[in-house]
Amino acid sequence: MTMLDIVSVALPVPLSQLFDYQVPTDGSLLAPGMRVEVPFGARRLIGLVIEWPRQGAEEVRLYKPIQKVLDAAPVAPADWLEALRWAASYYQHPLGEVIAAALPVVLREGRAVGLVQRHLIQLTDTGRTALHTLPARSHRLRRALQAVEEGTRLDAASRRRALAEGWVSETLTPPPQPVIAQGPELTAAQSSALAALRETPGFVVSLLEGVTGSGKTELYLRLAEDALAAGRQVLVLCPEIGLTPQLTARFRARFGPVVAGFHSGMGDADRAQSWLAIREKQARILVGTRSAVFAPFANLGLVIVDEEHDASYKQQEGFRYHARDLALVRAKSANAVVVLGSATPALETLANAKAGRYRHVRLDERIAGAAEPVAQLIDVNHYPTQHGLSEPLAAAIERHLVAGGQALLFINRRGYAPTLLCDACHWIAPCPRCDARLNLHRGEGVLRCHHCGYVARPPRECPSCGGKSLVPVGEGAERVEEALKNRFPGRRIERFDTDRLRAAGKLEALLDDVHARRVDVLVGTQMLAKGHDFPALSLVGVVNADQALFSSDFRALERLGQLLTQVAGRAGRSAASPIAAEVLIQTREPKHPNLVALLRDGYGALANTLLRERADAGMPPSAHLALLRVEAADRGKAEAFLSAAKAVFPSTRSVQLLGPAPAPMERRDGRARAQLLLSSTSRPALQRALSAWLPLVAALPGVRQLRWSIDVDPVDLF
Ligand code: ADP
Ligand code: ZN
Ligand code: ZN
To answer: How is the chain split into domains, by residue range?
Structure first.
């Protein structure tokens, strides 16, 4: 009887199991973490070896053989695979899909990739002589040699000839070395914060709470310097592509070429190069968005999560991981220092700090003089708005522009208006596929659904009564922009939203104009609220704060507090501003206790109130949640599935089930959505229950006719 080796492989398929294959008999060596190409049904898939090969008996002939071994060594260090296995189990997601999400596209597709080696090409003595003795007609070669001397590239043919003649020599460039530029002298507050952050080496989590402009980034740079000096690597996570270039540039200015970037704005090849550079220790610092948390660090010593409260750290579809939480897992196994930075920490993080699990370090003041602006409410019951602008807000803009300041108006909605209404019968343009209204995008001349992407031409007359008076109601960024242009002719008004700035480089160009003070008023959605540093900005106006006050989303008030604080933080960053900074917030609810508390006592006070409310309601961080979502052809099917799922839930008193209930937006993209909420005060109990339960859910009859998913630690319940 011949013995064959078999090996378990994780494949990118939605099944939570590994698949066994025969090891090729050609002597290929296999180890966990190596990519292999295997037959799967009629397809060929790229998978990752998960366990060491083991000997199987005769029946292993039933397993198909591996087609191709793609790597000679694991694609990443062992703790990388460990972290992915942990994540697969914690988020209840198939390991093969987790791996696929963690690998750069080119590796996932099975291509052979290596770090591009840079060669240093130099003239030899013979080459230098040749440069002067080459006959005049060899001008092409002469020019090429000249180019080498000047450090520019040689074309392939000239390079070959020059190498053959011994005119040039080629050596691999040594890996880049960090250069450490001098930073500013720390303020007293920064020095004591830094001392606190440095206090214990190794895995410790610190919350660095400081308003925008208080000098947090400078402390990140100092800690990175420590890590580099100790020969270790640094991961810097940042919530948005838009902010990555700015942060990368700051790290590069300090540390030079050892800083690599990683975000979805980069091409696949560049991303793979950054990934490999981290693995090969050629890059020592990686600055990137969410998925940078999966980089194969060889020797991680420091993890920084900037704007740690930001919801975009949570992946909202497929493998629904939270990059901040995974960063902690990676830091722990590498015994790395962690700093979570924010002006408005997530309630989870604050709770951990209050419980003493995280060190709480504060930077209370802005660097040098730039005082924090005072925010005031404008009661729009009193001062009605026109196209989103109340008279006091418009007058304030005027005042700031005349004084040489810059203004930013924040509005949380794209398009021209969220509603198209018939004046006569009150018909409202609905999305045929969702429980939602269509937004009017006047610039494009369309009605668009912001939930499913449905697009239609605006009707000329009311489909319900035939009336001719269809009016846009409410306001989006486009409308506010138009109103500003009418009110301030001759001023440059620019709108910042994804509709306009999708094209690569457009945002950067516009930001340059803002910095050069060629823009007077910025109108923007979410993308303007975060991190950007606008030194001349003196006025921030919030067009409408009310939506969040009445939202059913349990995080709405936390988000509102964060958002208003962040937007307000854009104003008055420079002490040299020609006019004192102001923040004005329009609302119909000037007496709303949460809004009043936020303005009077700040985000910290609001957070304390919200933490108490969450505790009373049994919501995070006092409890841990998981959400089973389902989409079906109709409500009956969706709820029947959830009822069946509930019926097979292992009975445990430590996990509560809520539902089935329709999703807050029940119909979306033509499908009925429902959900079942699980909550527990014990994370391990919730994990145990999920592990026992989900295989039963996956085996329910009719499960293939629906779309379902589990979301562990959901950031919203929609
Ligand atoms: P944050 O990250 O909290 O928003 P930054 O670190 O970006 O704050 O600091 C705000 C501004 O102050 C930046 O322009 C930065 O270069 C500058 N800055 C930070 N620390 C100092 C310091 N110790 N001395 C002088 N300028 C500083
Ligand atoms: Zn009508
Ligand atoms: Zn829709």
So the answer is: 2-108, 119-172, 188-363, 375-413+475-613, 419-470, 624-712
pLDDT band at 58 (very low <50, low <70, confident <90, very high): low
Residues less than 5 Å from ion ligand 2, measured at CB: 422, 424-425, 427, 462, 464-465, 467
* Helical H segments across 375-420, by residue range: 391-402
Residue among 217, 339, 366, 565 whose CB has most ligand 1 atoms within 8 A, to mutate: 217
The reply to whether ligand 1 has any atom less than 6 angstroms from the CB of 367 is: yes
Ligand 1 atom closest to the Cα of residue 221 is 6
CA-CA distances (angstroms) from residue 370 to 240, 255, 277, 517, 579? 26, 28, 40, 19, 11
Res 309 pLDDT > 50 = yes
Which CATH number applies to 188-363?
Answer: 3.40.50.300
Query: Amino acid identity of 43?
Result: R
What mean pLDDT do residues 293-312 have?
96
Could you give the angle at the alpha carbon of 700 between the alpha carbons of 694 and 706, nearest 5°?
90
581-616 pLDDT tens trace = 899 999 999 999 989 989 999 999 999 999 999 999
Statement: residue 389 has pLDDT above 80:
yes
Mean of per-residue pLDDT scores for the chain: 90
Give per-residue pLDDT as tens, 259-288: 999 988 888 989 999 999 999 999 999 999
Token representation of residue 694: 């989900």
SS3 191: helix
Secondary-structure class of domain 624-712 per CATH? alpha beta
Task: Kindly give the pairing relationship between strand 455-456 and strand 385-386.
Answer: unpaired
Q: What CATH fold (topology level) applies to the domain 2-108?
A: GIY-YIG endonuclease (3.40.1440)
Ligand number, closest to the Cα atom of 420: 2
- Ligand with an atom nearest the CA of residue 427: 2
**Residue 461 Cα, ligand 2 centroid: separation in angstroms?**
8
Residues in Cβ contact with 592 at an 8 Å cutoff, skipping those fewer than 6 apart: 549
**Which ligand 1 atom is nearest residue 218's CA?**
6
pLDDT digits (tens, 9 = 90+) for 446-492: 999 999 999 999 999 999 999 999 999 999 999 999 999 999 999 99
Q: What is the CA radius of gyration of the chain?
A: 29
| Distance from C-alpha of 190 to C-alpha of 172, rounded to nearest angstrom | 41
Could you give the CA distance from residue 285 to residue 252 in angstroms, rounded to a whole number? Answer: 9
For residue 474, how far is the Cα from the chain centroid? 30
Fold classified for 375-413+475-613: Rossmann fold (3.40.50)
Strand partners, 456: 447
Question: Cβ neighbours of residue 637 under 8 Å, at least 6 residues apart?
Answer: 672, 702, 705, 706
Q: How far is the CA of 232 from the centre of ligand 2 (A)?
A: 67
> What tokens were used for 261?
């970037």
188-363 and 375-413+475-613 in the same fold: yes
User: Would you say residue 1 has pLDDT above 60?
Assistant: no
Q: What is the pLDDT of residue 718?
A: 74
CA 270 to chain CA centroid, Å, is 18
pLDDT at 368 over 70: no
